[in-house]
Structures are given as C-alpha cells and as structure tokens.
Design goal:
About 30% of the residues lie in helices and about 20% in strands. It contains 16 helices and 29 strands. It binds ligand TSX and manganese (II) ion.
C-alpha cells in the first residue's frame, strides 16, 4: 500500500509529467549534486570561494523579482471567510482555472520532492510540509530555510499529516502566475514564479497563510513576527516578539548589536520573520521560529546596520539578484561606498553609474540561522521561548512617539490592528503615504481579518501572563526632516524600558493613546539627545491623533458587521480620551 505522500506525488506527476522524480534527503552530498547541476546550467554563478566559500549567486527572471500579491488568492467556499483584504476564488473554480497551467508543466524537467519540517525537529509545535517543485534553486533554498529531507520523512512516517504544496516555474509569464491557498483542505498551488515567498512554500504560504487558519482552528497564533531575547546584567533573558510592516528593519532589530553591551544588555536572535506561539503548560505564550534560515533584503545591509548577518552571510549562502564585483563577491547598494569598477549588475550586465541600481532593490541573501553570532542558545527549544512582550511598530515621520505601552490586552490588540506605515520606495507609488497593515499581516492572513482580530482578543484570557503590548516608531522626524532617534543598536534603550516596565521599575506618563516613558525612565547615557528632542520624540498630539482615529474608522468600515465589538469599543474609548485631552489643553 502506498502512503498518502506517495499517492499525492504520483497524482501530481501524472498531471505535471516530469521526466524524473528526485526525493530530496537534505544531505550535503545531495546539495553538492544540486549545486553542480545549477552551476552547469547557469542557475547558479559561482562566487569567490576564498572569501565566500560555498556561496552562489542566482539571477531570477527580471519579470519575477518579488512576491505578487495581485495573483495571490485565498480559496474558500464562502467569500466572507477570506474577507475584504484578500483576493478570493471558489476552490473548484480556482482549480479548474489553474490546473491546465500545471498540465505537462514539468515535461523534460526534474520534479524534486522536498519534505520539510517547519520548526525544530523535536518540537510538538512543529509541522510538516512537502513541496513538489521543478526548481533546483527552490529545493536548495528550502534546505536552508527549513529542516529539509530525511529528517522530515522520518517524522512523517506513513501519516497524512502534512501540508502539500505543488510548485512549478511554468513559463514564468506573469499573466500565467498564480499563488493559490486552499486553507479548508490545507493545500498550496503555486505556478509561474520561482521567487521567494511565491515559490518557497514553507514560508509565507504555509507558515503564515495556511498556519494562521490552523492556528485559529486549534487555539494558537501564527504571526509575522521576529523573536528576540533581551539579556539583562544578571544574565536573565526576557523574550519579545515584534511585528513591523516592510522596510522598518525587522531583521536588523532581531539581530541587533546592543549599544548597552558594556552595561550587560545583549540581544539574542530566535527568529527574524515568523513566530508560531502556543499557550504553554506554564500558562505563558511559548514561541518557536518555524524557519531555519534568514531570507533577508540585501540592500542597506552593512557592518553598521547588521554586523551579525554580514558575518553569517560569508559562507553557505545563496544570493539572489545582487550585483557581483570583478572579484566575484556579492555587492549591493548600501554595502559601503560606490560599487568597485567592473561590477556586474543583477541582470548580468556590466554596471554603469546613473540610471539604475546595481543590485535589485528586493535582492536577497538566504543564510542558515545557525551561522549568526547572535543566535540564541534557546532557538530550538522544543517548548519555545516564553514571550513577555509584543512590539508593534511602523514608520511614521510625524505622528507616533518613539514608544508607548498599551493599557491592557484588549487595548494592545487595538494598537496592533491599527498599525500603519508610511511608504518609502518611489516604485510603489507616492512616498510618505500611510498604509494600514494590521499586525503586519495584511498580505499574510489566510482568513477574514475581522475574525483574526477576534482570535487575538480570545487569546489573551487563555494566558496566565499575557505579553505586554508596546508600539514603537524609530522613524520620527523633526521639522527639518531629520530623524530624531539614532535607531539601530541604540534601540536597545527602548527594549530596556520595556523590560523595566515588565519588571515594574520604569515610570510612565499617561497619554490618550497609551503610556509613554517618563523622560528620566529611558536610559540615555552616552547619547547626546537634548531634552527638547526627547520631548519631540515622546510627544502625543491630540489633534493629529484625532485625524488618525478618523482614518482608523474608515479602515475598519471595510469589515462591516464582522468587526468584533471590542475593537469598536476601543476606538470609541480612544476618541473620547482624545477629545477630553483636547478640551484640557484648550
Ligand atoms: O533597520 C533600521 N532600524 C532598526 C535597527 C535595529 N533602520 C533601517 C530601515 C530600513 C530597513 C533604521 N533607519 C532605523 C532603525 O532603527 N532607524 C532608521 C532611521 C535612521 C537612519 C539613519 C540614521 C539615523 C536614523 N543616521 C544617523 O543617525 C547618523
Ligand atoms: Mn516577512
């Protein structure tokens, strides 16, 4: 009798008609074979093996350089189960439309069977996925980003408890590209893209969209969050999970080198992108990182912004769409200075200064987490690490203070649900336009976000000690457009304030949006920040926030009757605190 996995592989092979099927075991020998094949067919370009041993460059098709949300669908029987923020199709219609694109798609190609575990191999909270793909680059990337191969097959045995994901490059034509999720049957179909979150199905498709659905069904949380540990001078480590929209430096924060190291404060990395969190037997929220690697944006990464990932990405790393110097080293904008003479751009042409960047703005490194000097010794604890704080944030030039703390769990959920960030890249439209991105999950929630807010509200009371909820903004500017806060390693001062709040040591000032630090409660020694600047950083302007409250209301209107009453209640409470404070200052 064949196993459920074998049956699905056979069925998929009948559809896609590969010339060969390879079951990946995840071994080094297998990886060497794949690498040699990719070097010979041009999928990989060898980088300098002296300075970057076992590192390779991959150039994707220039029309396939980012996740494509416009062709990403949640396929549920009822439209309202996908909600107003997701693209939606009826499952049967989606399959009828996209099955022909898989028909014979792997002719003349190899189908790789890629079994993988999301999460530590021995954690009860980990889950198994299997990706069928005709991309060797995807198979090699999945080996870095997950526990891939024999280890997953051994855990699966003859069970049907895995999330199947069928992936084909197809013809890479954007008009024949679809990323389909069937959460009711826990199935993923992806065709027409070989890039990142579209193609490495364990990451956004499984660990966020499908897992968020499972998490609501099963009473846990799958979140777009980094996980870090803050060590204090006594050696005690307090774990925090943080959600930020894109372009806020999530990976940099997760891997931060603390500016207060001499005082005994250090940051340890558990994860940089996704957190799976369960109510532990101790009543604490316990977080695991389902991933095993970092798939990070390269441009802007340098020895100052993220020294740990720079060190990590000098061996066993796949670079995608970066530039390459004459010495065959990877290069990108914001590495340091101008590109050296003889640099080849991300498309493989010799680069000349002026019109375009040498590296694609969304170029990436794919690096094993185990290579980061900042990696926590607890990152693979089967029970996960206990989360004491959630941090939400965004890029707000004028509105949001450096940090504030919510009053309680319900208010904290409101703070997360009303997150927004201002756009930076001119390519995506106007710069400085504020976009709402609740819990940084807008593109990743596999169901109706109104129900998602409801799930968040329900989780708090299940916890003996729910995480405190904070909001940060590293990006506030003065009237001249200068950043008020130095950011990067200095952010540890804000993390320390959170820790001191958790421990009942730090004073706070009440404002209509929550509690900001009392000016003396932030550790600012060694920084030259004037009292005026500090006041600017912590200011809460009631008139500005009243406008914000109106914008929040418009966003929530999308969800109609399905929005939980507690969220409306929080919005009304905010409005009334704001109007009272406006009267008080008149
Ligand atoms: O990642 C960032 N972080 C978090 C770091 C742990 N970035 C980069 C954002 C794009 C991914 C930041 N940019 C941060 C930050 O805290 N802050 C800023 C804004 C900023 C930029 C340059 C300076 C200061 C602030 N330069 C000087 O102060 C000299
Ligand atoms: Mn992400």
């Amino acid at each position: 009798m064949s196993t459920p996995l074998e049956s699905w592989v056979e069925e998929s092979a009948r559809l896609t008609k590969p010339s060969k099927i390879v079951w990946c075991d995840g071994s080094e020998a297998e990886n060497d074979r794949l690498t040699a094949e990719m070097l010979s067919d041009g999928t990989f370009i060898e980088l300098n093996q002296k300075t970057y041993p076992n590192c390779h460059l991959h150039r994707s098709n220039p029309n396939d350089v980012a996740r494509t949300e416009s062709v990403t669908f949640i396929c549920t029987r009822q439209r309202d189960d996908a909600g107003p923020t997701n693209n939606w199709m009826v499952p049967a219609d989606a399959k009828e439309k996209v099955r022909p694109l898989f028909d014979g798609a792997m002719k003349g190609r190899t189908m790789y069977v890629v079994p993988y575990i999301m999460g530590p191999a021995n954690s009860p909270y980990s889950k198994i996925g299997v990706e069928l793909t005709d991309s060797a680059y995807v198979a090699a990337s999945m080996r870095i980003m997950s526990r891939m191969g024999k280890i997953a097959l051994d855990r699966l045995g003859r069970s049907d408890d895995f999330v199947p994901g069928l992936h084909s490059l197809g013809d890479l034509n954007p008009s024949r590209r679809f990323i389909l999720h069937f959460p009711e049957e826990k199935l993923i179909w992806s065709v027409g893209s070989g890039y990142g979150g579209n193609a490495l199905l364990g990451k956004k498709c499984f660990a966020l969209r499908i897992a968020s659905w499972m998490a609501r069904e099963q009473g846990w949380m799958a979140e777009h969050m980094l996980i870090l540990g803050l060590e204090d001078p006594s050696g005690k480590v307090t774990y925090m999970a943080a959600a930020f929209p894109s372009a806020c430096g999530k990976t940099n924060l997760a891997m931060m080198v603390s500016a207060l190291e001499k005082q005994g404060y250090r940051v340890w990395t558990v994860g940089d992108d996704i957190a799976w969190m369960h109510v532990g037997s101790d009543g604490m929220l316990r977080a695991i990182n389902p991933e095993a690697g970092f798939f990070g944006v390269a441009p802007g990464t340098n020895a100052k912004t993220n020294p740990n990932v720079i060190e990590a990405a000098h061996k066993n790393t796949i670079f995608t769409n970066t530039a390459m110097t004459a010495a065959h080293e990877p290069w990108w904008e914001g590495m340091d200075g101008a590109p050296p003479a003889g640099t080849i751009d991300w498309k493989g042409n010799s680069w000349t200064p002026g019109n375009s960047t040498a590296a694609h703005p969304n170029s990436r490194y794919t690096v094993p987490a185990s290579q980061s000097p900042s990696l926590s010794s607890h990152w693979e604890d089967p029970e996960g690490v206990p989360i004491s704080a959630f941090i939400f944030g965004g890029r707000r030039a004028r509105l949001a203070p450096l940090v504030y703390e919510s009053h309680n769990w319900q208010h904290g959920v409101f703070v997360g649900a009303t997150m927004a960030s201002e756009t930076t890249a001119a390519a995506t439209g106007a710069v400085g336009v504020s976009r709402r991105d609740p819990m940084a999950m807008l593109p990743f929630c596999g169901y109706n976000m109104a129900d998602y807010f409801g799930h968040w509200l329900a989780m708090g009371p299940k916890l003996k000690n729910p995480p405190r909820v904070f909001h940060v903004n590293w990006f506030r500017k003065d009237a001249d457009g200068k950043f008020l806060w130095p950011g990067y390693g200095e952010n540890v001062r804000v993390l320390k304030w959170m820790l001191d709040r958790i421990e009942g040591r730090a004073a706070a000032t009440e404002t209509p949006i929550g509690n900001v630090p009392a000016p003396s409660s932030l550790t600012l020694d060694g920084l030259s920040i004037s009292r005026d600047t500090l006041n600017e950083l912590l200011k809460v302007d009631s008139a500005d926030w009243s406008e914000e409250e109106q914008a929040i209301g418009q966003f929530f209107d999308k969800f109609g009757e399905r929005l939980p009453p507690a969220i409306c209640q929080e919005q009304k409470a905010l409005a009334s605190r704001l109007s009272r404070s406006a009267v008080a200052t008149e």
